[in-house]
Amino acid sequence: MTIQAKRSATIEDVARHAGVSRAAVSKVLRDAYGVSDAMRARVEASIAELDYRPKASARAMRGSSYTLGFEIPSIHNHFFPKIITGAMTELAHSPYQLIIAPAGPDHDQGPQAIEVLADRQVDGIVAISSRVPQPWLEELGRATPLVMIGRHQPSVSYDTLCGDDLAGAALAVRHLYELGHRRIVHVTLAESRVDTSPDTPHGMRVLGYERVMTELGLSPEYVRTSPEHASAADGGQELVKQAVLEFLRTADGPVGIFAAHDELALGALEAIAELGLTPGQASVVGYDDTDIAAHPKMSMSSINQSGTQMGVIAVRLLLERIAGRTESVHEVVAPKLMARGSSAAPEPRAPRAADVPSAHPTE
Amino acid sequence: MTIQAKRSATIEDVARHAGVSRAAVSKVLRDAYGVSDAMRARVEASIAELDYRPKASARAMRGSSYTLGFEIPSIHNHFFPKIITGAMTELAHSPYQLIIAPAGPDHDQGPQAIEVLADRQVDGIVAISSRVPQPWLEELGRATPLVMIGRHQPSVSYDTLCGDDLAGAALAVRHLYELGHRRIVHVTLAESRVDTSPDTPHGMRVLGYERVMTELGLSPEYVRTSPEHASAADGGQELVKQAVLEFLRTADGPVGIFAAHDELALGALEAIAELGLTPGQASVVGYDDTDIAAHPKMSMSSINQSGTQMGVIAVRLLLERIAGRTESVHEVVAPKLMARGSSAAPEPRAPRAADVPSAHPTE
DNA sequence: CTGAAAGCGCTTACAG
DNA sequence: CTGAAAGCGCTTACAG
Question: Which tens digits make up the pLDDT trace of B317-331?
Fold first, then answer.
């Protein structure tokens, strides 16, 4: 038995089989106006018999590809699957399909992944890349329906959707403060990766952190991962751990740690575990409330920004744009604090003051 | 300022701008044989100036789309990102792009996600869907270069790549046995979701489990999640937890739990945490060694099957097929046991026998 | 309601 | 080395 390359059925085959024109088949396919029931039945029968499936690439050349593209910056961050889940749910009974283009580890080098989608002639794009320059996006938005997640800067040619990162950072810091912490550090990405413009989620979280710290009369303090963080094979976990480890070794009193996202928070928890510190000695609050945060073994406090809901909203906005809307919409989702075991009232470090309640600043 | 839809440059525009034929531009694009240096330079300058990017859909109609499609069964299982990471690394300096089609929650209904990729005219497909019938795949394989991950059944028209699930299951069970466990249950998917044919990873793990248990003179015992597991919004975590909870409530002695993958293992650990059991009272070994398993707070024993390496191999096989290979290749990757804190020597349950070493069957 | 024809943006033989 | 022409599989006005 020799293996023979199979040629799959085309619209032409279906038309011939059903004894109608290609245009007729096309209309049935798209459920377009103006086909008799008889013809529809014949065509549908032929489609089924020949196991015909229209090629998306051919369709894309004239009309739409019925494909929506999602660009996600990192395959390692468990927040993004939440967004995808929401999007898929919303798309379930629509004619649209979803494809994902993950940004490579070298997504510094430019708008790559998002271009892959544009090149694929998708009908619309949802992107979560915060590092692409605005003018470039404005241009893309004029060519393709586009929804950007995590962009705070409003735009004219595309929609934006983001969490209220200022409020989220405030929730985290105030939570730690109310527990009694007075030394609260922010673990975030390397400076080169947090745009100085407050247009990125991480930029906004830094801003929010600074503001609340100032309001509370505390001084901001940062632990940053190295720029190589993003390209590390493990998603940078090890680098974060090292950075936090270094910080914790020099710190002596109890500290509150506000991590800019849960992956960073996991790294912090690793460092804390390695030093054998208690949640009171080093409290952690993450961001995104990824699935693992709620696991009893992890019990990590985190800021929830409704990732699933974001996916749903993003798809709705995109579908509206595809349907013709041209004015930009800018949605903001309110964050919620999920307080769990990783954050606790401050406890002193060192001489293992077992049960003796210790004196720590209460105001 | 009104927003004006942008038409992006075509090969025609470039040809005109450079004063050459479209064919010439096409050749430069594909780095094909037979272009003078002068022409190449002119064309490249025009491409840069017009910011031209070839449309993948148009290319796909005649030649290749330079796109490889990955189908992943669940966006919730953290094993798959490992595979994707490996694939992306391997593809980094190739002309190929990667797109991912996630299977919807209703991926019972047929080969959907994988068809999305085929419809998209990708140059080749790597799929991890084990539930698609073999004949269907054989047919797809004749139309498109195809690599299936996790299929044990050899095929004529596509390549396969899988972990040695029999060996992996044996590693897990023997590990628990050597720790001293004599009651060892297997937590796996609903029977309807583990094909009866030993063609799926989970089917093979069941088989491996049964064999070793028999060899060891122990009787197999299953905890299965309900069929709704796969379509649950949280990836089924809650359902697994409930199932394990139920089992642990009726069990009285120490038990070893071999979970068919880490997500199931996480659910088991949740149940164990909820009952306040120690690793000795309920030991867990997962499968896949996802990132979180190694986290000190989780410290979950697991079977590592080199997901990243699998991604690398899958891409290599696919690229070979695209380059013309037609004989099928079937690769098997050896699993490794990663023993961690979640599995320990048996301890009795109930009357909280604090430090007193208890009598439990040693042989 | 139905179909013939043009065209989307590329690549591929085929001449020159 | 270079280009004119055909064609990939669809959809879209436009006639009938």
Answer: 999 999 989 999 999
Least confident among A170-179, B43-52, B77-86, B343-352: B343-352
Asked whether residue B223, judged by its CB, lies under 7 Å from any atom of the DNA or RNA strand C, the reply is: no
Is the CB of B54 inside 8 Å of chain A's CB atoms?
yes
Of B57, B269, B308, the CB nearest to A65: B57
Report pLDDT for A358. 47
A237 touches chain B (CB under 8 A): yes
User: Does A210 reach chain B within 8 Å, measured CB to CB?
Assistant: no
Residues A154 and A198 in one domain: no
**Does A245 lie at the interface with B, CB-CB under 8 angstroms?**
no
Beta strands A124-127 and A282-287 are unpaired
Cα–Cα distance between B308 and B81 in angstroms, integer?
Answer: 8
Contact B120 A119 (CB under 8 A): no
Nearest-Cα residue of chain B relative to residue A155: B3
**Helix ranges restricted to H, B180-302:** 201-215, 237-250, 262-275
CATH number at residue B104: 3.40.50.2300
Q: Measuring CA to CA, how many Å separate A243 from each of A49, A205, B119, B354?
A: 62, 19, 46, 39
List chain A residues with CB under 8 Å of B308: 233
A179/A289 same-domain check: yes
CB contact (8 A) between residue B88 and residue A102: yes
Residue A59 lies in a domain: no
d(CA B255, CA B241): 16
Strand order from edge to edge, sheet including B97-102: A330-333, A159-163, A146-149, A124-127, A67-72, A97-102, B97-102, B67-72, B124-127, B146-149, B159-163, B330-333
β pairing state of B336-338 and B301-304: antiparallel
pLDDT in tens, B226-252: 777 666 666 677 889 999 999 999 998
B88 and B47 assigned to the same domain: no
Residues B45, B99, single domain; the answer is no
Q: Mean pLDDT over all residues of chain B?
A: 88
Query: For chain A, how many structural domains are there in total?
Result: 3
pLDDT of residue A363: 37
- Chain A residue numbers with beta carbons less than 8 Å from the beta carbon of B292 are 266, 292
Cα dist. A114→A119, A224, A229, B120 in Å?
A: 9, 27, 21, 17
pTM of the model: 0.90
Q: A265 Cβ partners below 8 Å, 6+ apart?
A: A187, A257, A259, A284, A285, A286, A287, A293, A300, A302, A342
Of B57, B99, B233, the CB nearest to A60: B57
Helix (H/G/I), strand (E/B), else coil: B345: coil
Collapsing DSSP states into helix, strand and coil, what is residue B69? strand
**Is B207 within a domain?**
yes
Q: Are B270 and A100 within 8 A, CB to CB?
A: no
Full domain range(s) for residue B24: 11-54
Is strand C in 7 Å reach of the CB of B23?
Answer: yes
Query: Is the domain of A91 the same as that of A151?
Result: yes
B122 touches chain A (CB under 8 A): no
Q: CA of B100, closest CA in chain A: separation in Å?
A: 5
